[in-house]
Write a structure and sequence with these properties.
Blueprint: E1 3-8, H1 13-24, E2 31-38, E3 40-47, H2 50-56, E4 66-72, E5 87-88, E6 94-99, H3 105-114, H4 126-139, H5 143-151, E7 158-164, E8 170-176, E9 181-184, E10 189-192, E11 204-207, E12 212-217, E13 221-226, E14 231-232, E15 237-238, H6 254-260, H7 262-270, E16 274-275, E17 280-281, H8 290-295, E18 299-303, H9 305-322, E19 326-330, H10 331-334, E20 346-351, H11 357-368, E21 372-377, H12 383-387, E22 390-393, H13 406-425, H14 431-451, H15 455-465, E23 470-475, H16 480-494, E24 497-502, E25 519-524, H17 530-541, E26 546-552, E27 564-568, H18 576-594
Parallel strand pairs: 18-19, 18-20, 20-21, 21-22, 23-24, 23-25, 25-26, 26-27
Antiparallel strand pairs: 1-4, 1-10, 2-3, 2-4, 5-6, 6-7, 7-8, 8-12, 9-10, 9-11, 11-15, 12-13, 13-14, 16-17
Bound molecules: 6-O-phosphono-alpha-D-glucopyranose.
6-O-phosphono-alpha-D-glucopyranose (G6P) binds at residues 304-307, 351-353, 356, 359, 402-404, 605, 607-609.
Length: 612
Amino acid sequence: MCGIVAYIGKREAYPILISGLKRLEYRGYDSAGVALLNGHLNIYKKAGKVADLEAHIADSNVEGSIGIGHTRWATHGPPNDVNAHPHCSEGNKLTLVHNGIIENYDTIKKELIARGHTFISDTDTEVLVHLIDEIQENSKVPLEEAVRLTLTQVIGAYAIVVISKDEPDKIVCARKSSPLVVGIGKEEYIIASDATPIIEHTRRVVYLDDEEVAVIHKDSGLQIKDLENTYKTPYVQELEWQLEKLEKGGYEHFMLKEINEQPQSILDSFRGRIDIENNQIILGGLNGYEEAFANAKRIIIVACGTSWHAGLVGEYLIEDIARIPVEVEYASEFRYRNPVIYEDDIVIAISQSGETADTLAAIKLAKQKGATIFGICNVVGSTISRETDTGCYTHAGPEIGVASTKAFTAQLTVLSLLALYMAKQRATITDDEFQVLIKELNEVPEYIKESLKCEEQIIEISKQYMDVSNFLYLGRGYNFPVALEGALKLKEISYIHAEGYPAAEMKHGPIALIDKNMPVVVVGTNKSAYEKIISNVQEVKARDGQIIAITNEGDDELDSIADHVIKVPKCLEQFSPMIATIPLQLLAYHIAVLRECNVDQPRNLAKSVTVE
Ligand code: G6P
């Protein structure tokens, strides 16, 4: 949901802003803009990608060692040049970029108009810059104080960066519910929505907290205050991610790279956490929370999108092997439906980005009710990872493609570890069963390597179905969430309508859709549901549907019934979702490529959804 990057230091800001914005484009990519301070304030904005902005200003004056940049995902007003950020005060003294939503913008705007202000954009953001300007004019306070006073009047979510022609040695930034990181280099600072634009310049970062206002002065450096005007001590952390992980590494798209990284990312996810010799799972995040987990009578999982699908697999895993009741909730519904939450509940928040607004709000609510909050996040230092009581990082590495792939399988890995830990703690499985399961989990990266070999076959299947308008995905048990995730991947990146369904439910509705033009992807890799899924496949075939079946090597019954059979290695049912999802990711990817869709940045989507 919008990417922000800003620079203050001794170097030219423009190249740093542009390369930073390109790294942040996954957050939004409908328009972009930069502002550079160099005696004058030069502002350039353009609808389209960062590359369009770059082309637009190829011959312009981009000098300046202070600058701010933005790549937008529109919320208020269409994606055009005027609504693009940065936005300016009247007279072009101040300019700012914003990520988030100002909920009371309309009231503030009307008041400002009544006092003589003129607005040029449709955005909620523009009220901020007018208000800061007005406060500065009236009270003659420094920029940081005007920003602080403005933000005390604002309801909503924001990460903002502001610069002023009259105070050319400083940048002021602030956040609430939208992320902002300050990178501390040698005599320079890079501020950004996440660490990806920062890592090539410095590894030392400070994550701003909610309702903090930071001023970064060219000479005196970083100072942070909260909205109550109290000084805060910046907490400097070291970034761990490698720069190479942010590049495409020879692949045509980030998504394909990330699909292929899964043998490694799953290994990274359980590295040091499976102790086969001593037959145990080691999860540092559980230290001090053993009792809360042992006493929990219920687990509630909150998440959105692909992370919600991971949560559904988590439900099967935890109930199956640890015998604890689990509820999986869309965070957006949970937060508004007055849910029943007990103090001995464990609430697990799953989020790749760690910034999803609804998931964040859901955990804040659960926290108020006294539940223990456990986070499963990928982005280290993200807001959710900091708001939770404890948790486990997925360690999948940066995921840039908007459609989640390796983060999903890493989430499944952590959920598997957690389920195994709780099963052992509650003695719901024997030591021997535990040993068999952890050994199998240890093998998953190898199975994934094998299943990636189906790519050529998937390309052929993709050619055959690239022009259809609808797809149905069916699965049962552990593979029902896999069917949902497969359908989501396809619709996200190829814009083909796709639905995931529990296979047996098909006869209660979707079967009416089946005819010779309807491809049906059947995920049949789980042993306990295999016979039943064969019956469901027969029902589709009887109505001339086209079957693409994912089955295990050695399971041959579907070979003669299905139109296409993709074989993946057999593994214990509990971990089969990680394997079965691979061909579905590849199918979505290749159909989207054949349809010439923008795979890494699909239309209307954003990777990090920091608005509700
Ligand atoms: C967006 C992304 C999805 C993601 C969802 C939840 O919709 O496009 O890929 O699954 O947000 O994001 P999170 O970061 O909380 O996992």
